[in-house]
């Protein structure tokens, strides 16, 4: 699941820079810090006034304000007075962009409650989905705009609130993935399920763990989240945290009973769900170069030589990803095998029969090859299905010369 982009975002920022320079865009706020709020809101009012002058000038010059770009920019910047002026001069309040996103959608994405309220008053459907099935409340939840989420939920029926986008996710999944604790709490109180999985089998706690949002993970665990429930592709919350290097999140999950010894066992037979079949947490952490996670898992006695179904091991994964420090730790501290060969290859630099030296040679990682050969005593002539490091080093003359000097044929 990915947070869908707002197509008008680049235009909004470009217009803002043109008018106001590099100063961070501001929007009205309401907090207990009255002094800063006054300054903040004054800046917003000044910016809106300048933008309105530009729009008025364009209309005087008979520029067509019915074109959707201006109203989308006004909605994205939160300039409700500009929006009113444009609508009074013929702009369409129900206009949509090429992805069927409405003005409410754009305003919700940027957190402009004032614009959302105004557009609702003007009769715009706040439940209208974009082409991908995402509605304004999804966007607001994904980006953490609690005030907008509350307003929209109040205007929706329970059926609308619990709807599923085309990616199989509900609003709750978007908030959890984004790490927005207050939004997650609110949605849970409103009946959103902390345990329901999306169509990929991903639960909110898995999505939060994937992003390293420990506070959200803790809240979801306290409200029934299962720390060991796998998605369709076999990934669990602790595995997802390991993949992205979130050690703090991992430690919390392990403390609550997550299994760090798990091996990915896809529940689905789909090809896209088989990518990490048989992989351990330490393998995926090694692949992405998360040394602190690798050390933690190794000290939890996760097998540093356990192969995935395709024969990849942590050392091979680290070599493929170019992570020398991880390889040094695995070999020096944990005596990991440097001469493993993969069984099947569907990844760049990792054909069937490839070794760590082979995959490092393919990518030109001379420092890794040197360590594997000199410190790890790796064999530079392992030949499985013709997969020799020397052949892999084509295009890397320095590395090729090094291999020849060390007996490669």
Automatic annotation (TrEMBL):
The keyword Repeat applies. It comes from the Eukaryota. InterPro entries: Ankyrin_rpt, Ankyrin_rpt-contain_sf. Keywords: ANK repeat, Repeat. The keyword Magnesium does not apply. ANK repeats lie at residues 66-98, 99-131, 132-164, 167-199, 200-232, 233-265, 277-309, 352-376. SUPFAM superfamilies: Ankyrin repeat (SSF48403). This is Uncharacterized protein. It comes from Synchytrium microbalum.
């Amino acid at each position: 699941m990915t947070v869908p982009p707002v197509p008008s975002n680049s235009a909004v920022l470009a217009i803002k820079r043109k008018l106001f320079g590099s100063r961070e865009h501001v929007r009205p706020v309401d907090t207990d810090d009255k002094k800063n709020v006054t300054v903040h809101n004054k800046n917003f009012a000044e910016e809106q006034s300048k933008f309105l002058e530009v729009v008025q000038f364009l209309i005087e010059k008979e520029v067509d304000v019915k074109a959707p770009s201006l109203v989308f920019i006004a909605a994205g910047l939160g300039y409700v007075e500009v929006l009113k002026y444009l609508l009074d001069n013929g702009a369409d309040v129900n206009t949509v962009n090429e992805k069927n996103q409405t003005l409410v959608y754009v305003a919700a994405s940027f957190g402009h409650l004032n614009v959302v309220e105004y557009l609702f008053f003007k009769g715009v459907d706040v439940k209208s989905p974009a082409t991908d099935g995402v509605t304004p409340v999804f966007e607001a939840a994904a980006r953490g705009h609690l005030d907008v989420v509350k307003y929209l939920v109040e205007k929706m029926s329970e059926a609308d609130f619990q709807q599923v986008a085309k990616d199989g996710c509900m609003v709750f999944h978007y908030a959890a993935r984004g790490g927005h604790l207050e939004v997650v709490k609110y949605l849970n109180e409103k009946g959103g399920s902390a345990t329901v999985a999306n169509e990929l089998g991903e639960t909110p706690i898995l999505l939060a763990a994937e992003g390293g949002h420990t506070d959200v993970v803790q809240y979801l665990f306290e409200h029934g989240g299962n720390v060991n429930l796998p998605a369709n592709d076999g990934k669990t919350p602790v595995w997802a945290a390991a993949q992205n290097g979130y050690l703090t999140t991992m430690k919390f999950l392990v403390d609550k009973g997550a299994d760090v010894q798990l091996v990915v066992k896809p529940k689905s037979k789909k090809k896209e769900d088989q990518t990490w079949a048989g992989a351990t947490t330490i393998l995926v952490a090694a692949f992405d170069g998360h040394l602190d996670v690798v050390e933690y898992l190794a000290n939890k006695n996760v097998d540093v030589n356990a192969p995935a179904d395709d024969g990849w091991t942590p050392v091979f994964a680290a070599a493929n990803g170019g992570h020398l420090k991880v390889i040094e730790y695995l070999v020096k501290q944990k005596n990991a095998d440097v001469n493993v060969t993969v069984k099947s290859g569907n990844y760049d630099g990792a054909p069937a029969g490839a070794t760590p030296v082979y995959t490092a040679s393919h990518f030109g990682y001379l420092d890794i090859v040197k360590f594997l050969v000199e410190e790890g005593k790796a064999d530079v002539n392992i030949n499985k299905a013709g997969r020799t490091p020397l052949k892999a080093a084509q295009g890397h003359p320095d590395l090729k010369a090094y291999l020849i000097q060390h007996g490669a044929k």
